[in-house]
Structure prediction request, 253 residues.
Amino acid sequence: MRTITECCRSVGRLLAGLAVLFILPIEATRAENPARLRVLMTVGGVDYHTGIVRALRANPGIDLVVRDFDETSALFTDAPLDAFDAILMYHRDNAAEPAEQKALTKFLEGGGGVVVLHHSIANYPDWPDWWRNNVGGLYVLYGNDRHPPSRYFAGFEGVAVRVGSHPVTERFNIPWRYQDESYADLWVSDDVTPLLRTTAFGSDEVLAWVGPSKYGRVAYIQPGHGDRIMRDPIYLNLIEDSLNWAATGAAVQ
Prediction:
């Protein structure tokens, strides 16, 4: 008769064997796809649709980590940013702490890139170097003598076309009919590189652009409010391509 010790050893060997069977396919999958983009997506500060999170997590080329502004005192610090290739900024924050400013600048200088999405164009009005010299745009919450307040329009319908040639819009080769919340009267730098334009009433003409950042790669995309656009394959391609460019400077292969 086998002792309890012998039985335990047998069970242990069996479990170890099963573990190998389950672990090997996972490791093999990782080895087959080493080029997944490591993306930090920031959310919170305002209501948002989660469809974009689900879509990006279903993308086999993206390893997505989501951090919620409403659940942490600081979204950006040196240690977490070192683990990512690109940031998808989709939160709303009126103030950037000095440590966050330093971390974001260091991230860009180190070769990382940032895609600023929809309402994040209103971020950090107290940090002019960010919105003026990196993003190249700002949603002006309160107008002044130099610029009127920005406006938004729900249920906007427009047609967007590509401007010039750029890795972000390499797959964007047809007029795109879309419906989403639009922005008008944004402050936009003369130094941005336009990527998409629309002539529809109720939106600024330049719909997406590359910012003038001298530190690294920064892009802005205006649409990004409703669940409908989050399921639009053209829009999802645009997000994927902008993240890939922000991380690598190249087009999606």
